[in-house]
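Design request, C-alpha cells follow.
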C-alpha cells in the first residue's frame, strides 16, 4: 500500500511541536470566525489567508487544515445556538439543532455536531487517501442532464419530505426559485425581475437570504411572542459536553448515513454541501415519520442534527481531495485554497503529487490531526459556547440583529443589502407565522441557478430535444428513486391527515 507508506511519512512531518501548534491555532481561529453570523468558513479562510504568507508552505497549509474544518464547526455553532448558519452548508443543521438548544440540550447539540464533523471528515479524508481515483472517475461522468436531475431530486425530495404539507412545501420551493431568478440571465446577458435596480443585477446574495430568513426572521418571531413564551430558552449545565450512550447509539447510524451522502458530493464540480446535507436531513425526517419519533420537529432530534453535520464535513473532505488531485475547486472555500496554492507557486492537480508530494501527504496527515484536535477542543468548548443562551432574550436577540447586520454589510459594504435583509426578515417572520416551511425555499434559492443553467446547457447540446434529460442510466435511476420518494411521502401525508382527523373526532 504505497498510499499508507506515504501517509505515514506525512504524519512524521506533521507531528512536530511547531506544526501541531499551527493546527491548533487554525482550529481555534477558524471556529471563532465561523461562529460570527454572516461570515462562515469560507470567509474564515479568506480573512486568515494573508496571515499565512509569512509562514513556510508546510506550516501554512497545516494551519489551513485547522481553519478549514474549524470554520465548518463554527458555522454549525452559530446555526445551533443562534439559528444563523455561517454558510449554506449549515442550514440543515438549524432545524433540529436550534430546537435542541431551545429545549435545554445546547451543549449536547454542539457535541453532536463536533462528533459528526469528526466522523464525516475522517471517513471522507480516508476515502481521499485510498479511493480518490475511483471517485474522480465517478465525478467526471456527471454532465448537464445529471446535474439537472440531481437538482430536481433535491427540489422535490426536500419539499415533499420535510414539510407537513406537500402543498406548502411546493409553494415555498416556488418562492425560492423565484428569488433565484432575479438578476442578469447568464446565457443571454439580459436583466430579469430586477425592476431596473442595479444592485439586483447580481441577484440576491445567499448569505443575505439565509441571514434574513433564518436569523432576522427568528428575531422578529421571538419578539412577537416574548411575553407569551418568556421561558422559551433554556440551557445545559456547565462542564464537559457528554452524550449519553443512548443518544450516541441513536446518532451513530445517522452520522454514518450523513457521511455516505456527503462523501461523493465533494467530488462533483459545483455540487456543494447543500444537496447532501438537505438529503441527509430529509432521510432522517422520513425515518422519523416511519418510527413516530416524538422529538423530530418538536423538541429537536439528535438524528436530524447528526446526519447533516456528518454530510457537510464529508463533502468538505472530498472537496479538498478533488482540489489536490484535479486542481478543481468544488466549493467557495476550496477556491480560496486554490488561490493559496498559487500564491506559493504551486498548481494543484495530478502533477502536484509528483512535484510536491511531501507537502501534499503532510497536508493530508494534518487533516486527520486537525479533526482530532477540533473534536477534543470543541467537546470542552461546547458548554462555553452554549452559555451564550444564558444571556437574557432581549440582549441576545439584539446582539444577533447587530451581528447579522454587520456580517451582511461586510460582504459588499452596501446599504441596499441591509434593506433586503430587513425585507427578508419580515418575510421570514410571516412564513413562521403562517406555518410555511423554510427548507424548500432555501433549497430553491441555492439550487435554482444550478438547475436552470444545467437544463439550458443540456437542451443546447441536444438542440432542444428533451429526451436528453433521461438519456443516461444515472438520470433514469435518480428519477425512479425520486418518484418512489414522492409517492411514499404522499401516502404518509394522507395517513397522518387521517390519523389527525380521527384524533380530533375522538377528542370532540
Amino acid at each position: 500500500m504505497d498510499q499508507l507508506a506515504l501517509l505515514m511519512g506525512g504524519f512524521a512531518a506533521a507531528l512536530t511541536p511547531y506544526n501541531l501548534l499551527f493546527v491548533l491555532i487554525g482550529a481555534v481561529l477558524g471556529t471563532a470566525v465561523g461562529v460570527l453570523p454572516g461570515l462562515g468558513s469560507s470567509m474564515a479562510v479568506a480573512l486568515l489567508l494573508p496571515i499565512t504568507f509569512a509562514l513556510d508552505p508546510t506550516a501554512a497549509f497545516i494551519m489551513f487544515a485547522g481553519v478549514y474544518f474549524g470554520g465548518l464547526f463554527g458555522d454549525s455553532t452559530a446555526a445551533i445556538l443562534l439559528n444563523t448558519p455561517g454558510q449554506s452548508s449549515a442550514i440543515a443543521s438549524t432545524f433540529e439543532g436550534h430546537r435542541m438548544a431551545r429545549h435545554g440540550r445546547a451543549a449536547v447539540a454542539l457535541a453532536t455536531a463536533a462528533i459528526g464533523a469528526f466522523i464525516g471528515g475522517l471517513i471522507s479524508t480516508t476515502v481521499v487517501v485510498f479511493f480518490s481515483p475511483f471517485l474522480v472517475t465517478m465525478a467526471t461522468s456527471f454532465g448537464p442532464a445529471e446535474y439537472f436531475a440531481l437538482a430536481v431530486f433535491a427540489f422535490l425530495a426536500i419539499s415533499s419530505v420535510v414539510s407537513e404539507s406537500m402543498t406548502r412545501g411546493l409553494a415555498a420551493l416556488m418562492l425560492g426559485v423565484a428569488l433565484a431568478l432575479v438578476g442578469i440571465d447568464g446565457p443571454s446577458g439580459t436583466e430579469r425581475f430586477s425592476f431596473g435596480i442595479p444592485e439586483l443585477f447580481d441577484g440576491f446574495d445567499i448569505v443575505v437570504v439565509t441571514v434574513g430568513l433564518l436569523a432576522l426572521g427568528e428575531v422578529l418571531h421571538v419578539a412577537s411572542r416574548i411575553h407569551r413564551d418568556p421561558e422559551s430558552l433554556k440551557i445545559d449545565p456547565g462542564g464537559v459536553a457528554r452524550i449519553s450512550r443512548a443518544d450516541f447509539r441513536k446518532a451513530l447510524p445517522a452520522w454514518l448515513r450523513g457521511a455516505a451522502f456527503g462523501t461523493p458530493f465533494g467530488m462533483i464540480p459545483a455540487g456543494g454541501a447543500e444537496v447532501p446535507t438537505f438529503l441527509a436531513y430529509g432521510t432522517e425526517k422520513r425515518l422519523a415519520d416511519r418510527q413516530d419519533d416524538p422529538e423530530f420537529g418538536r423538541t429537536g432530534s439528535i438524528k436530524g442534527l447528526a446526519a447533516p453535520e456528518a454530510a457537510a464535513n464529508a463533502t468538505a473532505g472530498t472537496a479538498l481531495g478533488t482540489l489536490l488531485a484535479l486542481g478543481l475547486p468544488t466549493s467557495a472555500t476550496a477556491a480560496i485554497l486554490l488561490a493559496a496554492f498559487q500564491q506559493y507557486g504551486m498548481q494543484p492537480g495530478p502533477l502536484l503529487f509528483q512535484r510536491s508530494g511531501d507537502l501534499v501527504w503532510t497536508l493530508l496527515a494534518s487533516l486527520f490531526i486537525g479533526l482530532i484536535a477540533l473534536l477534543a477542543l470543541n467537546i470542552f468548548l461546547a458548554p462555553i459556547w452554549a452559555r451564550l443562551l444564558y444571556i437574557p432574550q432581549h440582549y441576545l436577540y439584539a446582539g444577533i440583529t447587530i451581528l447579522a447586520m454587520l456580517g451582511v454589510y461586510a460582504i459588499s459594504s452596501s446599504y441596499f443589502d441591509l434593506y433586503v435583509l430587513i425585507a427578508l426578515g419580515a418575510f421570514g417572520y410571516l412564513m413562521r407565522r403562517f406555518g410555511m416551511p423554510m427548507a424548500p425555499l432555501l433549497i430553491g434559492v441555492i439550487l435554482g441557478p444550478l438547475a436552470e443553467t444545467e437544463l439550458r446547457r443540456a437542451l443546447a447540446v441536444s438542440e432542444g430535444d428533451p429526451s436528453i434529460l433521461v438519456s443516461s442510466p444515472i438520470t433514469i435511476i435518480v428519477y425512479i428513486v425520486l418518484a418512489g420518494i414522492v409517492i411514499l411521502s404522499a401516502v404518509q401525508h394522507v395517513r397522518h391527515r387521517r390519523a389527525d382527523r380521527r384524533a380530533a373526532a375522538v377528542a370532540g
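Comment from the thread starter after seeing the answer: thanks! Strands lie at 183-184, 191-192.
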